[in-house]
Write a sequence for this structure.
């Protein structure tokens, strides 16, 4: 059985999530410091997933919450959000973003724990165990898509905000290598299974990236991580990063994506721009057989 086999026959739906640019989606809703994070989720993807898999008052968890997109969108939709983030700087911005949202009338709430989500069940209070309706998260992915550019005097561009942290702490799965990333992410999902209600959902957004010209298939690895954590794959969705106008896709690729695809094509390697995120959706099984997933 190859890695794609478990999801080959799953229902697929397309989420229209980029009718506005990322900047327009965040305008006034997020603090400007949030743009320092190299890999934020598109707010419309978070809002779509929360609307689809939960109802007002439900608990939504993001174990790798970055600057808090999941938590802010959950708060706007009157959910109770809980986030975990390893890097104190991002956790601080996530808290500030939630305070900003509630100050603008968001009816829900958000709480952020700073720490290593591979130890999830030791970080959050036990009263949360078995209570969450949805885990929505995104693991770190390829450095090629990150960063913003500024023009420099005299010509050329300078890259900034392309790193998750200044440290090389290997607890940060962005610095853990492929094996560390998949092993750590499986552990995180196993901890999430403990927080979920039986039948609760896990939605993971991920994109493939290229390393030395070869495709690194993170979405399929995510499927394997979820299964290893005792979760059941139930859907594989396409969340558009491109707008749709009159039946056509309007690309919104970054400078780096355009640059690397043009370079590859120039070198004779046929590559296309990525216009979507994969969203891999799992459920915590209702049966007692797997309901202890993640407990040691
Ligand atoms: C792709 S980003 C998520 C961004 C987030 N969805 C947002 O919109 O801001 C992944 C995040 O996981 C964090 N992270 C990496 N390893 C972690 C770990 N072991 N525990 C908790 N967070 C971790 C990174 O610091 C990074 O902020």
């Amino acid at each position: 059985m190859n890695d794609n086999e478990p999801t080959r026959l799953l229902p697929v739906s397309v989420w229209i999530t980029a009718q506005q640019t990322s900047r327009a989606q965040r305008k006034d809703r997020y603090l400007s410091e949030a743009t320092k994070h190299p890999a934020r989720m598109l707010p419309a993807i978070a809002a779509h997933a929360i609307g689809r898999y939960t109802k007002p008052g439900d608990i939504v968890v993001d174990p790798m919450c970055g600057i808090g997109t999941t938590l802010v969108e959950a708060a706007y939709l009157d959910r109770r959000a809980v986030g975990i983030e390893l890097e104190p700087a991002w956790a601080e911005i996530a808290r500030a973003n939630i305070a900003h949202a509630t100050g603008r009338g968001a009816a829900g709430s958000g709480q952020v724990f700073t720490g290593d989500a591979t130890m999830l069940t030791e970080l959050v209070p036990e009263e949360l165990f078995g209570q969450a309706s949805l885990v929505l998260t995104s693991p770190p992915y390829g450095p090629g898509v990150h960063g913003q550019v500024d023009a420099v005097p005299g010509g050329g561009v300078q890259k900034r905000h392309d790193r998750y942290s200044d440290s090389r702490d290997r607890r940060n799965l962005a610095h853990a290598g492929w094996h560390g990333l998949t092993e750590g992410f499986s552990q995180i999902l196993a901890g999430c299974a403990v927080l979920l209600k039986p039948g609760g959902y896990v939605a993971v957004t991920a994109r493939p990236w290229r390393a030395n010209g070869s495709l690194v298939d993170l979405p399929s690895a995510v499927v394997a991580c979820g299964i290893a954590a005792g979760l059941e794959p139930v859907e594989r969705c396409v969340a558009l990063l491109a707008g749709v106008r009159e039946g056509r896709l309007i690309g919104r690729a970054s400078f780096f994506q355009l640059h690397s695809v043009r370079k590859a094509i120039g070198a004779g390697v046929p590559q296309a721009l990525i216009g979507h995120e994969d969203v891999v959706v799992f459920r915590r099984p209702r049966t007692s057989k797997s309901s202890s997933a993640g407990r040691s």
